[in-house]
Amino acid sequence: MTQFTIASTRCRIEAQAGDFVFAPNLTPFADASAWTAPDLLLSVSSGEPTPRAPAGPPTEVLVRDDGLEFVRPQGSMLATGDFSRCSVRLHPAPSEPFTGQPWLMLALWGRVTHRDGLLLHGACCELEGKFILLLGERQAGKSTLARLVAPAGGTCLTDEYPFVTCTAGGPVAHGSPWPGLAGQPSTLSAPLAAIFYLSHAPANVLTLLPPKQAAQRLITNNRFFTWSPATLPIAFELIEQVSAATPLFDFGFVPGLPAVDEMRRVL
């Protein structure tokens, strides 16, 4: 039994799959605290593949009386309605260290969206001791700008999977074990200071958006957990909270360190 805290979610993994080894990306998130109960319990075992159509989609989702079942060629996961309890069956038994992808990440995504959080498509960086999000459409430059934060004295936590949770003190951004290409696995969490919605432009221009327009930008980059329709109104409410509490800038930028300086100027 191994415990991790990721995005303020206490995750307990009960491995029943033989020579089960955790990969180094999960190690920093290990938590030896004495919990009365985890927020997410993930049981992992091995077994025969679940029958499925050979021409079916990469991920098939089955609605069952006791929850949802996610079926992939490399395994399946049965989750309760609120994703507090998930059971994974790997097939065949794991031959490589367990990184948490896709099963722990999928379970955590479901659990966070049922509680008080969002999973966004973008980058999360630390700059001047403050946490920022870099969002935008495909090819907008999220990873490009995230890579420039480090030589400017900051840190890229992830350029792919930022979690944001909403607390009484306001939105909080989190590192995760799955940093993407530009980041590093990081347990860091901090209040969200600003959001930058990126696009390529001939000059660096920042425009502060009103909350309603900010919410529209967040909607385009939120990973809605559409398999559980009950989470959709929760997500929209959280997006409104984040957009009301956090400045969001449209940022037309030119790739280069001056773009990082421009973000630093408004933090």
Polypeptide structure, described:
The chain is built from five helices and 16 strands. The mean pLDDT is 91. The protein is α+β, with helices and mostly antiparallel strands. The longest helix is centred in the C-terminal third of the chain and has 15 residues, at 231-245. The strands form two sheets. Strands 8, 9, 10, 11, 12, 13, 14, 15 and 16 form a nine-stranded mixed β-sheet that branches. Helix 3 (211-221) crosses helix 4 (231-245).
SSE blueprint:
Elements: E1 2-6, E2 9-16, E3 40-46, E4 60-64, E5 67-72, E6 75-79, E7 85-90, H1 103-114, E8 117-119, E9 123-127, E10 130-136, H2 142-149, E11 155-158, E12 163-167, E13 170-174, E14 189-200, E15 205-208, H3 211-221, H4 231-245, E16 248-253, H5 257-265
Parallel strand pairs: 2-3, 3-7, 10-14, 14-16
Antiparallel strand pairs: 1-2, 4-5, 5-6, 6-7, 8-12, 9-10, 9-11, 12-13, 13-14, 15-16
Helix pairs in contact: 3-4
